[in-house]
Specification:
Helix content is 15%, strand content 30%. With 137 residues, it is of the alpha/beta class. The strands form 2 sheets. A 4-stranded mixed beta sheet has the order 1-4-3-2, with helices on one face. A 3-stranded mixed beta sheet has the order 5-7-6, with no helix packed on it.
Amino acid sequence: MKTLFVSYRVTDLNRSLAFYIALGYIELGRIQAGDTTHLAILSFPDEPSASLELVHRPTDGHVEVGTGFDHLAIQVDTLTDTLTHLTEAGLTPGPIQHPGGPDGPKTSWLTDPDGYRIELVEWPPGHADGITAADFS
């Protein structure tokens, strides 16, 4: 088994698509599910398959992010370059943080149009992609 993708319900599909495309995602396609529900399927350019689904169901009203959801973490190559790109695209990323100390990962936080939090992570040199069991040994 493996995780296929994360799915967010969004209030305004076009506004959310613009945000996630500015973040670096590409749109793989759209699906109309019923009379009013639309799905947009996204991935990063180098991903082999979808990693994010945006669900627009206007009959359900405005999205309210619940207290059970925390955040989506996205790995970036160079955090400073990513923050520059996002700022130029009109987004408002937070300052660089060092939650693991000066030799650990660099992070920055961003919030999408519906209030979903996104953590941008740059691993230190030599760290494998993602979090693995090696991070806990």
